[in-house]
Design goal:
0% strand; mainly alpha
Length: 122
Amino acid sequence: MSRNPGPRSRSNTTRGVRPEPQGGVPLHLGANGHNGHNGQQQQQQQHQNASNGAAAAAAAAAAEAAQNPNAKKIRSLQKKIRAIEDLEMRLARSEKLEDTQMKKIATKQAVLAELSSLETSQ
């Protein structure tokens, strides 16, 4: 049998009651005075919209892949070109690049040649 130790003397902060900041808006409320519970419905709606957008993008990519079997490779090469151009911009700003990054920059011409050959074969 356990005994109840009785009431304890605690300050408000130890019981989880937060003091209000100087602005007068309690910490648990947002800047507009709301606690954000209505935002839950908005988040669910945004999630559904994002899911629908992702599904549409996937369907478009699948349709493109059906039309062109090289579409995935082309997208991959375009992504490599963007990464190389990003590295070139960093190099132009005098940032120190790793050896692997410098080697990647050196492959730009080969990647461009492969990309142009795939794009012309469409």
